[in-house]
Amino acid sequence: MPITWIGEAGHPAGGRTLEDMSAKPPEGQSPPADGTLPAAALAELPRHAFGIYIHVPYCATRCGYCDFNTYTAAELGGGASAATFATTASAEIRLAARVLGPGAPAVDTVFFGGGTPTLLPPADLAALVCAVDDAFGLRPGAEVTTEANPESVDAAALEQLRAAGLTRVSFGMQSARPHVLAALDRQHTPGRLPDVVDWARKAGFEQVSVDLIYGAPGESERDWAASLDAAVDLAPDHVSAYALTVEEGTKLARRVRRGELLETDDDQLADRYIQADETLQAAGLAAYEVSNWASGPEAWCRHNMGYWRGATWWGIGPGAHSHVGGVRWWNVRHPTEYTQRLRAGQSPAQARETVSPADRHVERVMLGVRLAEGLPVVELTPGGLAAVDDLVASGLADPAGLAAGRISLTRQGRLLTDTVVRALLPDL
Amino acid sequence: MSSAPQAPGVDQALIRNFCIIAHIDHGKSTLADRMLGVTGVVEARNMRAQYLDRMDIERERGITIKAQNVRLPWKADDGRDYVLHLIDTPGHVDFTYEVSRSLAACEGAVLLVDAAQGIEAQTLANLYLAIENDLTIIPVLNKIDLPAAQPEKYAEEIAQIIGCEPSDVLRVSGKTGVGVPELLNEVVRKVPPPAGDPNAPARAMIFDSVYDIYRGVITYVRVIDGSITTRDRCLMMSTGAAHETLEVGVISPEPVVTGSLSAGEVGYVIPGVKDVRQARVGDTMTSARRPATEMLGGYRDPLPMVYSGLYPIDGSEYPALREALDKLQLNDAALTFEPETSAALGFGFRCGFLGLLHLEIVRERLEREFGLTLISTAPNVVYRVVMEDLTEHTVTNPSDWPSGKISEVYEPIVNAMVLLPTDFVGAVMELCQSRRGVLKGMDYLAADRVELKYTMPLGEIIFDFFDALKSRTRGYASLDYDPAGESQSDLVKVDILLQGETVDAFSAIVHKDKAYAYGVSMTGKLRELIPRQQFEVPIQAAIGSRIIARENIRAIRKDVLAKCYGGDITRKRKLLEKQKEGKKRMKTIGRVEVPQEAFIAALSNDASKSNRSG
């Protein structure tokens, strides 16, 4: 089976909605070759949780809705194949330790995303967990997650991963309906899910999550209900559900344009979201973020919480994004260039931006309101504060949350998060 | 301007003043260029295409907006040296008055017709104007070098229209130069010399007036009697104002100072004024020292026929727009404007134009020469509204439509002439009927060409009539029209309401029978153009308080369902900034946010792009 490379970090083949993914990386300043960070950014390290994201840029096949550049392993060359990935990525982990220096805290979370991380042998993931531990130390009770395509793991592999220190697995389920999986070009069959979840439980994973996609062309309300029911039947600790975005340049977009497939409209997507929220809530899974549900705070994905709470994270791998104390940067996208940079002892960062205090506030509001825990109203500017009553009155913000001093969104508010964010940032 | 040894006081017997009447694209400018070459006033190497069309827009569109004139020395086949004045005429329906003044400066007209296309309505209209002015007509077929030329057929057609023999129709090619010297000899032979009184008090007709930033206003004149010289102050007879005569000369084709122009001559006079309204086209210039007592006939004040609101898309450009309009007005006596405020569009100007082309040219010059980005409201004509209490309102803007009890409404009417191949008569009659046209006559110009005469409300013509006409005749019809007074009509004002608030920019005055169609089309358009809001937005069309059409924009239900992880944050933030930027360009009507693009799209009716080749 040819291995293909998925050109951007943070987006698992596990099937997230791919909104904005075709977009090129943002413009930024060029970073120093050794990756050195400003002292002001480093000074913030002790104040935040620390996560490591590891982007594994390979897929067995390409999904029809995915608009990444893909390359076969043979095309990559230059030592950028899956076989050498663990070695190269370990080099970036050591570089991270050098850049962050002695002030670096121990690591709270590790997250393997892709691509399809489980295309790598479990031993490679194990080696990378070790590399993180060696470089920074893994905090006791650290959360170590991998995404996994149902067809890419078996009982033995899951046992090996658990033994290597992984604590959490997130399966790319997407749908329980074969024709929806076919529309998405997914390779697994619905019957695979109960098996892989069962194996993961038996292997001793503390948290099991499934990813779902709704709004695929041809998916009916009943199809979606069937998928939600099937997901609930797996008794997962955590569910992510994303609306499918038809991206230009994908096979899916071509088929929609030719009229072979009908795109789901926004109102239907809103209906699907409500359907998901109701079903999952009834099953004891509460939305703790716009697109994420969990059986309780202990089942929240702590790694992802770091993104929404403005924590420190270092993204390892081609195209991966990082954030330290208001400095954001992103790596070169091509695995070959990524590998060459690290072999030359250089930082693989392509560009960086130093987020201004005003923009940090924008990010804080933009991310904070996505969470059920909400955004403390004290963080708002006077202009933003003035919009709060209106948000409550129009049913977007929860009055109980406000009484507790936080802006947390109702279901209707979650559907209109951008509207809420704009209202809270009148000075943007 | 160079001074050159051009002797003043050319013998009138040796002067021939003529113009060329032609349709756009029939090669008038190319022929004029060829005449410059044949007479030697422009050497071949200095020749640039369409030498006489000076404005960029004219050159690009291949049309003449302002008349130009040029003096051509010509040794005719009788061996004598003549002075020919070629007066170029504007070629569009909006400028009929300017055309009539140019014609009044001539004794003869070359009727130039494309040998592959035959005569067009515009040409015919100007031909009739020339005949009314007693001009000698010299019929000419141009482009005889074209493979598609049918000189026999069109010579026949021309002969029938002007009443001559087909053999009298000259054949030339402006492109190759064939027949051009013969044409000039024919002008000398046929066109009568001027017959003014060289000793009478000076009377010169201004047939064009342009503003030059260095010289002030430059007038182009035809001296009828006496002479205009820099020794005398000149006097504008319509205003009675006298001005310094700063410079007098001829164009050949660059300006040449002569110091004076005498009876029969055509040239320029710089009267030391700053504004073309002080030296208007059609006015009579005389000498302040020894003034004439009677004006030459035919002068009239230019009257705007079509009004439209012009608004800067960026509100901060309002002062720049005012300045630009002020500058354009220096050169355009027909342009009027006054400040106007729209709840939807902000601050702008209500502008009056001679017609749609005039509107478009002004708008284009504002955008091109002054770097402004504008939005224009749907054009409308001037209505006279008589109330039941017999008070009267002149309405140039739907917002000014009176709200009380209306007794009668009058709208401007035009005599329209459509020339078309017989195949399309049915389609065009149907169109004209649907635009409230009344058929006044139908003449066969040839076996396969018809002239239809209609009276029609001007308001119907300015509303995408050109486009409709062209699409129904595959581009083969041509149109011309002349104001023909006013008529009483059943007109109503249709308002468009967003969430109950009237959007002034979309109000329109339409015939009662068309109100419903307008309402349905506008509400439908807006439903597509206005993004969904957090609440339901009703869009209504109403006559007074009566709702005639309604659409709904349903409330938005979701704007985000995408993930937002580490790699998405920067992009998402920038997207948010962009959305915010977009919001700033929104106008708020009541609580409804309407993107500027929606106004532009809803207001860009077909009329605003239809008149390029009317």
UniProtKB/TrEMBL annotation, chain B:
Which residue windows are transmembrane per the record?
A: none
EC class, as a word, reads hydrolase
Q: Which Enzyme Commission numbers does its entry carry?
A: 3.6.5.n1
Where the record annotates domain Tr-type G, the positions are 13-195
According to its UniProt entry, the protein's GO biological process terms are: positive regulation of translation
Q: Which residues bind GTP?
A: D25, H26, G27, K28, S29, T30, N142, K143, I144, D145
Compartment annotation: Cell membrane
Q: Which reaction does it catalyse?
A: GTP + H2O = GDP + phosphate + H(+)
**Keywords from the UniProt entry:** Cell membrane, Elongation factor, GTP-binding, Hydrolase, Membrane, Nucleotide-binding, Protein biosynthesis
Specify the superkingdom. Bacteria
Record-linked Pfam families: EFG_C, GTP_EFTU, LepA_C
| PROSITE patterns according to UniProt | G_TR_1, G_TR_2
Q: Which GO terms describe its cellular component?
A: plasma membrane
Q: How does it sit in the membrane?
A: Peripheral membrane protein
Q: Which GO terms describe its molecular function?
A: GTP binding; GTPase activity; ribosome binding; translation elongation factor activity
- Protein family (similarity comment): Belongs to the GTP-binding elongation factor family. LepA subfamily. Belongs to the TRAFAC class translation factor GTPase superfamily. Classic translation factor GTPase family. LepA subfamily.
Chain's role: Required for accurate and efficient protein synthesis under certain stress conditions. May act as a fidelity factor of the translation reaction, by catalyzing a one-codon backward translocation of tRNAs on improperly translocated ribosomes. Back-translocation proceeds from a post-translocation (POST) complex to a pre-translocation (PRE) complex, thus giving elongation factor G a second chance to translocate the tRNAs correctly. Binds to ribosomes in a GTP-dependent manner.
HAMAP family reported in the protein's UniProt record: LepA
Q: Which NCBIfam families match?
A: lepA, small_GTP
Protein name as annotated: Elongation factor 4
Q: Which organism is it from?
A: Pseudofrankia asymbiotica
Q: Which gene is transcribed and translated to give this protein?
A: lepA
